[in-house]
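A quick aside before the break. I want you to see a complete sequence-to-structure record at least once, exactly as it would be stored in a machine-readable document. Don't worry about memorizing anything.
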Amino acid sequence: MIKLADEIRGKFSDVLSSDGAFDEVLVLEGEIYRAKEGRRTLRFEYGGENYFAKIHMGIGWKEVFKNLTAFRLPITDASNEWMAVEVLEHVGVDTVKIVGKGSRGWNPAKRESFVVMKALDELVEVEDFLKELGGLQGRRRLELKRVIVRKVAESARRMHAAGMNHRDFYLCHFHILERDWSDWSPEEDFRLPLIDLHRSQIRSHVPMRWLAKDLGALLYSAIDCGMTDRDLVAFLRVYLGREWKQRLSDESTLWQMVVKRAGGFYQRHRGRKMPLPGVFQRFEY
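That is the input. The structure line, written in tokens, reads:
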């Protein structure tokens, strides 16, 4: 199976043959961002536009068995990424635009596959952006931060409600435009695309364990980004809804797991105890 959008079909000379076009994608050349375990991620240019290709050449039985013995499902091809993008697009979460995808072979250790995405204009990681907030000060700085917090919360809510968890749900995987923010006003909308979806899981609903992993990673990555207790309340109002206080109480087991996981990350990577926001004080770990 291979599908190529019209905007990149011209890059491949053998588009009349699915195998020929597939072979051309597998040997694409460009700036290598990652090459490991039978996978390559590279950036290339075509028609004045930039694209990323993630190419899977088969991870081998050793890697398959290593994942299985650790009770993890191995990522054997690129389909996980494009299915995750389809879920996010369906529920209205900003993400990457896929312009090509393909997979062939039945052997999970040798399956060849790829996904081609248009490079984002939003290049700045939100985790870094929140520390400076475009140089804004005073009221407008707070307004911009709250808009970002609510957008992240809305993306998390929609993704989890659709039965999908990210597995690497850190703020660095949300991106924002690098621009002059001095003329920004709250009426002006902007995107916060969510990326790096290759490890995502999709089910009818997200089990509590995986919700805790996603939300714990998000809390850990946000805690040193100038997040106040009111910022976290703003997140909860969107993620849990108007009855957020009651849901926080009713779902205390989940949120205890979230705080414990975030605190464990923080202790391991920062070497000290995580400062616990007031809204989570009841979940002391």
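Two observations worth writing down. The chain has two domains: 2-118, 124-283. The first helix runs from residue 6 to 9. We'll return to this after the break.
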